[in-house]
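Moderator note: this is an archived Q&A kept for reference. The question asked for a predicted structure of one protein chain; the sequence and the answer are reproduced below.
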Amino acid sequence: MIAKELLQKAIAENKDGFTIPVKWKIKRYVVAFTNNNKNPSFSLLKKQVEAFGNADNVTIGGWTSDNWEKFIDVGTTVRSKSEALRLGKLFKQQAIFDLKTYNTIYV
């Protein structure tokens, strides 16, 4: 389980975005399960991680939108761009992220 201090440090030191592995199997595309913005509580993030705990891998990631809104979400990574886009639509995400090219791909 991720420590609150680690999450706070990642947020403070990475203004553009970050991905922290909770359960990790390296895959290429990051897609969020949740739609959290504006500083969700640590207890909410912990509950969300536990809810998706049976997934192959679980991440906590943060990013800043073009209009400077901050998002912190619980998500996963997948190998296929088409699968990431499908999950992004299913979970009503604005975008997915490519860990290889460091590009945001809008859904």
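Archived answer notes: The first strand starts at residue 17 and ends at 23.
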